[in-house]
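Morning, I've got a small favour to ask if you have a moment. I've dropped the whole record in just underneath, so have a look.
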Amino acid sequence: MDPLSQLLRDQSGVVSRRQVLDAGLTTTQLARLRRRGQLVQMPHLTGVCVEHNGPPTHRQRSQAAVLHAWPSALCLDSALRAAEGPGRRERSEATIHVAVDRQRRISAVPGVEVHRMAGFAERVQWNASPPRIRYEESVIDVAAGALDDLAAVASLADAVGSRRTTAARLLTCLGERHRIPRRSWLQAVLAD
C-alpha cells in the first residue's frame, strides 16, 4: 500500500497538504488528484482534503480540524465523543473543539473552536486518531465548564458509569491541575 493510501485509511479519508507532500507526491500530483476529484478541499479548512465529494462525517470533520491547526488535538466534548466512539452518547455538536499550545495563535474557522492550553503536549494522547486530550482531562474540563451543577455531575457520572475511568483517577487528575473552576466542589462530588 502506498503512503498516501495508508494515510487516508488511518485518518478516516482525510489528509493535509503537508502530509501528501511528505508522502512523496509533488504539488503537481496533488493538483491532479484534486482536479480528478480524488481529493476534495474541506470547506473552510485550507490545506485539508477528504477523499470524496459528499458531506464529511463527524469523524472526518474532527480529523480535518486537527490537521488544519496541527499540532493540535480534540478537546472538551469533541475529545469525549471521539473516545466513546459512535453511538455511545448523543453528542450532536456543530462545533469541533480543538486544543493547541498556549503560545500559538490560530485564526478562527467556521465550525472549529480553538482553545489555547497550558501543558498541552503532556495532556495529549498522540497515538489516538485523531489525537485528543486524555479522557480524564477532558471529563474534568467539561465538568468544570458546565453551565450548572447538575450538568457537571452528569458529565462525571457518565464518565465513571461508562467504565472508561474511575472517580479515583478523576480525583488524581483534578489534583494535578491548577486553576480549575469549582475545584473544591468537584473534589467533594468525586470523593462522594
Remarks:
- The mean pLDDT is 90.
- The radius of gyration is 18 Å.
